[in-house]
Amino acid sequence: MAKSRLLSLLYPLLLAALFMHGYGQDKKVHIVYMGDLPRGDFSAESAHHSMLESVLGSTLSAKESLIYSYGRSFNGFAAKLSDEEVGRLSEMDGVISVIPNHILKIHTTRSWDFMGFAEGKLSGSQEGNVIIGLLDTGVWPESESFIDTGMGPPPSKWKGTCQGEGNFTCNNKIIGARYYNSENWYFETDFKSPRDSEGHGTHTASTAAGQKVQGASYFGLAEGVARGGVPHARIAVYKVCWSFGCATADILAAFDDAIADGVDILSVSLGAPWPFPYMEDPIAIGSFHAMRYGILTSNSAGNSGPYPYSVANFAPWTLTVAASTIDRKFIASVVLGNGKVFTGLSINNFMLNGTYPLLWGGDAANYSAGADPDIAKYCFSGALNSYIVQGKIVFCETVWDGSGILLANGVGTIMADSEYSKDFAFSYPLPATVITTEDGQQILDYIRSTQNPIATILVGETWKDIMAPSVVSFSSRGPNPISPDILKPDLTAPGVDILASWSPVSPPSIYWRDTRSVNFNIISGTSMSCPHASGAAAYVKAAHPDWSPAAIKSALMTTAYIMDSRKHPDLEFAYGSGHINPLDATDPGLVYDASEADYINFLCKQGYNTTTLRLITGDNSSVCSSTVPGRAWDLNYPTFALAIEDGQPIQGVFTRTVKNVGKPNSTYSVGVYMPSSVSVTVEPSVLSFSAIGETKTFTVKVYGPKLAQQPIMSGAIWWNDGTYVVRSPLVVYNILPGATYSSPYSMTKPQKTPKFEGSSVYHKNGILGHD
Ligand SMILES: *[C@@H]1O[C@H](CO)[C@@H](O)[C@H](O)[C@H]1NC(C)=O
Ligand SMILES: *[C@@H]1O[C@H](CO)[C@@H](O)[C@H](O)[C@H]1NC(C)=O
Ligand SMILES: *[C@@H]1O[C@H](CO)[C@@H](O)[C@H](O)[C@H]1NC(C)=O
Ligand SMILES: *[C@@H]1O[C@H](CO)[C@@H](O)[C@H](O)[C@H]1NC(C)=O
Ligand SMILES: *[C@@H]1O[C@H](CO)[C@@H](O)[C@H](O)[C@H]1NC(C)=O
Ligand SMILES: *[C@@H]1O[C@H](CO)[C@@H](O)[C@H](O)[C@H]1NC(C)=O
């Protein structure tokens, strides 16, 4: 995350370079998406070739233009096309969408213990049958997390390969690896192989499924045993991200391969910062086909929070994961010459012996470089005068990567920025800490009022974070920008200051030229929470190999730890169902299952018609039963969301079906909590089962007066049989005025029935204030 935030500042430059480099002519890489593979004999490559030939006019230009034929798991291709060619292809039979090649961004281990998952209970062979595919920056295969001691050969279902180029090798842990680069654009630091030069993919893969490594630490900080969620599961690596970002044509190629290769769970920690309709979003398309093959895709929710509607990767067939804190925070204190101590956030492994002169960056401007105090106070690289800074600690008025002070031979830096001193820490190439803007003012006052100001920065410590878990500020928030009645994100998992494996050639701090080398690093992001959820999903899959993606997802969501609403003004839009709880998820009692047909029905209501649907499903029997757009209230989703247009009264009816996966004979009764101004009726209120696999259907009627000044009303519905508690949040919210979603849906007034109301917020045992 750290890196991606700073990188985002460089992005315009990178994209401009990309333009000049690959896009000299006006042909650009596009994805031509054509839905499912046709039945029967079908040669994707020749079909795509002849389509291109008819548009481009010659065999040779068709050949030159074609980059990928997607034909293992779904139908489509990527090719270099001009605008005019795009126009003609879009008109052709069988084409669902033509999508420009967008560049997306990549969005220890104490974290598993924190969620009560100190040790898995499944056998190594159960876990060893599960394959997690990761679409990321590749992997560093020699990392200790990927040693395959004690692991047999890959399961027989595995059909993937290892692109062992350079010195890259696979083993029984990393059983497959491929790489994709449709733009054919490589930086100096990129390895033309599945090898990870950035660290991100190594970090996510080891978080999901790394072996246990004793004594892992970041230069001695956070030392302990590092391990992934399913240490015996297999890893399949699909490298789609490079120094310039992750191209959507490559992402789709990776989905096409991963599905056919036989992965069980896909982990995708990347995304776009703006919403696409589902069939124009390669991650939604790829994960839709994965779902059809029984593969759950776990996605990062994005790092664009805390703003409403910022959530990415919100398709209902995927798991969307927010990021929250664990009970460990990284602090580094500053001690001034007058004895005052300020506590800042930083992953500071440096030990300063004694005090050093303290200086305000603004007093060290390098005028010949064009800087003045107003620039130098931010301590950007090149703005400081090294004669003045040498041997001193520099106080800076913003958070930057520390390079300005390092290159000017300073000793350390104190940075003041309230945004970056709240809930997550960065690491720097020199002694550093980040304090609040108010504390910064006190330090400035001290510098101004003292003849010879001095200070020291103490070596970093880890403190217990009693507020944990709380969703971190940068984690993207709901509501869902495309389907307002599907609550997103789905749940939250640890994504703040996570220790996991790293590429030794990648900088260990946020300064991109930091040449130190580490095998473990501590970073933050929904990129880090996503593989925690992928690991947990793989754990459920290992316990229940025959469960559908929706069942696994439901199990993870309905067993989630309840988050403390008092710490989160945006409630479920921050954390969805709550905090992931891998152990309980293997035994949820009931699941909200959903099949491809249910998602198809959902797509029909979202405006797809029989023609476009058939393209997606490749099946002439798919019919949209209604051409009238409708609401998503009947998709068998494990949460309930009701979006209300401004000024309208609250009314909605949900239908849901639960499947018994607990005890054969069981009777569940419903519990409801909702603020009293809203009426919630569940019928029937008791569900009796006499067999495993039996299903029962119920309806939930929600109505009430207009919402006034209430962005979100939050409640819950749970089924309890004395053993299991199957909980779903229920949220009612106002669509922001000006949001264009409108629905012709009209509802008959619900009958007045006795109201079922809980008296207080329901908490499962021992959920809040984990210790
Ligand atoms: C493999 O190649 C990479 C990149 O050149 C290099 O950094 C690494 O040390 C090599 N590893 C082995 C085991 O040779
Ligand atoms: C401080 O002392 C420790 C232990 O002697 C040493 O490792 C470290 O390099 C010293 N730090 C500086 C900045 O001199
Ligand atoms: C000031 O900046 C100039 C131009 O970047 C650089 O050459 C010079 O070394 C700097 N001076 C000091 C004292 O840091
Ligand atoms: C289905 O949707 C497509 C794309 O929106 C449109 O071109 C087509 O005319 C529609 N077909 C029917 C039968 O409504
Ligand atoms: C579906 O219908 C189309 C057009 O009617 C036909 O060309 C195609 O062969 C049919 N496909 C299948 C699998 O029946
Ligand atoms: C479930 O209940 C039915 C009817 O009460 C009974 O016949 C059956 O044996 C019970 N099954 C189990 C597994 O307890």
From TrEMBL:
<feature type="region of interest" description="Disordered">
    <location>
        <begin position="746"/>
        <end position="771"/>
    </location>
</feature>
<keyword id="KW-0378">Hydrolase</keyword>
<keyword id="KW-0732">Signal</keyword>
<feature type="active site" description="Charge relay system">
    <location>
        <position position="136"/>
    </location>
</feature>
<dbReference type="InterPro" id="IPR041469">
    <property type="entry name" value="Subtilisin-like_FN3"/>
</dbReference>
<dbReference type="InterPro" id="IPR000209">
    <property type="entry name" value="Peptidase_S8/S53_dom"/>
</dbReference>
<keyword id="KW-0720">Serine protease</keyword>
<feature type="domain" description="Inhibitor I9">
    <location>
        <begin position="29"/>
        <end position="107"/>
    </location>
</feature>
<dbReference type="Pfam" id="PF00082">
    <property type="entry name" value="Peptidase_S8"/>
</dbReference>
<dbReference type="InterPro" id="IPR034197">
    <property type="entry name" value="Peptidases_S8_3"/>
</dbReference>
<comment type="similarity">
    <text>Belongs to the peptidase S8 family.</text>
</comment>
<dbReference type="InterPro" id="IPR023828">
    <property type="entry name" value="Peptidase_S8_Ser-AS"/>
</dbReference>
<dbReference type="InterPro" id="IPR010259">
    <property type="entry name" value="S8pro/Inhibitor_I9"/>
</dbReference>
<dbReference type="InterPro" id="IPR036852">
    <property type="entry name" value="Peptidase_S8/S53_dom_sf"/>
</dbReference>
<feature type="domain" description="Peptidase S8/S53">
    <location>
        <begin position="129"/>
        <end position="578"/>
    </location>
</feature>
<dbReference type="Pfam" id="PF17766">
    <property type="entry name" value="fn3_6"/>
</dbReference>
<feature type="active site" description="Charge relay system">
    <location>
        <position position="200"/>
    </location>
</feature>
<protein>
    <recommendedName>
        <fullName>Cucumisin-like</fullName>
    </recommendedName>
</protein>
<dbReference type="InterPro" id="IPR015500">
    <property type="entry name" value="Peptidase_S8_subtilisin-rel"/>
</dbReference>
<dbReference type="Pfam" id="PF05922">
    <property type="entry name" value="Inhibitor_I9"/>
</dbReference>
<dbReference type="InterPro" id="IPR037045">
    <property type="entry name" value="S8pro/Inhibitor_I9_sf"/>
</dbReference>
<keyword id="KW-0964">Secreted</keyword>
<keyword id="KW-0645">Protease</keyword>
<feature type="signal peptide">
    <location>
        <begin position="1"/>
        <end position="24"/>
    </location>
</feature>
<feature type="active site" description="Charge relay system">
    <location>
        <position position="527"/>
    </location>
</feature>
<feature type="domain" description="Subtilisin-like protease fibronectin type-III">
    <location>
        <begin position="634"/>
        <end position="732"/>
    </location>
</feature>
<dbReference type="InterPro" id="IPR045051">
    <property type="entry name" value="SBT"/>
</dbReference>
